[in-house]
Amino acid sequence: IFSEQAEKYDIAVHCWLNPYRISYDVEFKNLPKNSPARKLYKENKESLIICDKGIFLNPATNEARALVLNGVKEILNKYNVSGIHFDDYFYPETEEMNDESLYKDYKRQGGKLSLSEWRRENVNALISSVYSLIKNKSEDIIFSVSPSADIKKCKNSLYADVEKWCREEGFVDWLIPQIYYGFENDDMPFEQVFNQWHNLCTNCNVRLICGLASYKCGREDKFAGSGKNEWEENVNILSRQYEQVLKSPVYQGFSLFSYSYCFGENVNQISEKEIKNLLYMVE
After folding, report:
1. Measured over all CA atoms, what is the biggest interatomic distance in the chain, rounded to whole angstroms?
2. Among 102, 134, 178, 187, which is least packed, fewest CB within 10 Å?
3. From CA 98, how far away is CA 24, in angstroms rounded?
4. CA–CA separation, 87 vs 19, rounded Å?
5. Cα(82)–Cα(97) distance, integer angstroms
């Protein structure tokens, strides 16, 4: 229904997926009886990571990779989509990874990578496979990933090799870093993070799209330190951030998270003014 209606109004639909996350609930028994994860677990228990963060597909296994690829293939074959988009969930941020035996197998077979490098290559294998699958369907279909804006976190906790994706061919068409910070954030000020990604993206065929935080408009940003009240006291943060996008030769646009904070049920007086100011600039 969504894709059919969007086509009437010339709206491009990109299907947003969380590639590995199955459930926030850590109890395997609570999964629906028809969940594909149950079949995977029965065939190979190592195909899942069950940890304090929930239940995830294990990026190190062929079974998990095949499930994601088949899901993407199903979408491409059944629906009129202009893009496939992956969210920022890759490896769970936990010490309970349960991939020791798989890594030992890899080393026994002559593997030379460190554990961290091996995990990043497991994610790279899926990303490059999805890219190839999409391009075999149509060169016009976009593959994009929206990683955490924290580059170190991507590399060392989520094992998302964003540096490689920014630099080399065959991984993504777009990267949409979630630069969900204000200008006054103590640890991750917007301009600093914006410039880090600007400098990272050296492949002219990879487009950077700046992810902006409409969901913070009019609300306390409790993890921003001394800048926690910035989004409550200003109505031009998004438009100022868009100004930065316009000045950049690397960024090709912006995205907003999320619709409900721009036009839906979560709109407030400040967010209305923020969006009005932003739209005035765009128009």
Report:
1. 60
2. 187
3. 17
4. 7
5. 34
Mind listing the pLDDT tens digit for each residue in 24-67?
Answer: 999 999 999 999 999 999 999 999 999 999 999 999 999 999 99
- Measured between alpha carbons, how far is 130 from 242 in angstroms, rounded to an integer? 30
Q: Is 12 helix (H, G, I), strand (E, B) or coil?
A: coil
Contact 215/261 with Cβ under 8 angstroms? yes
Number of CB atoms found within 10 A of residue 118's CB: 18
Averaged pLDDT score across all residues of the chain: 96
C-alpha 211, offset from chain centre: 10
Query: 214, 257 in Cβ contact below 8 A?
Result: yes
Those residues whose C-beta lies under 8 Å from the C-beta of residue 77, and which sit 6 or more positions away, are: none
**Three-state secondary structure of 55-121:** EEECCCCHHHHHHHHHHHHHHHHHCCCCEEEECCCCCCCCCCCCCHHHHHHHHHCCCCCCHHHHHHH
And the tokens for 16?
Answer: 């947003």
Contacts with 149 (C-beta within 8 Å, 6 or more apart), sequence order? 177, 178, 179, 180, 181, 188, 193, 197, 211
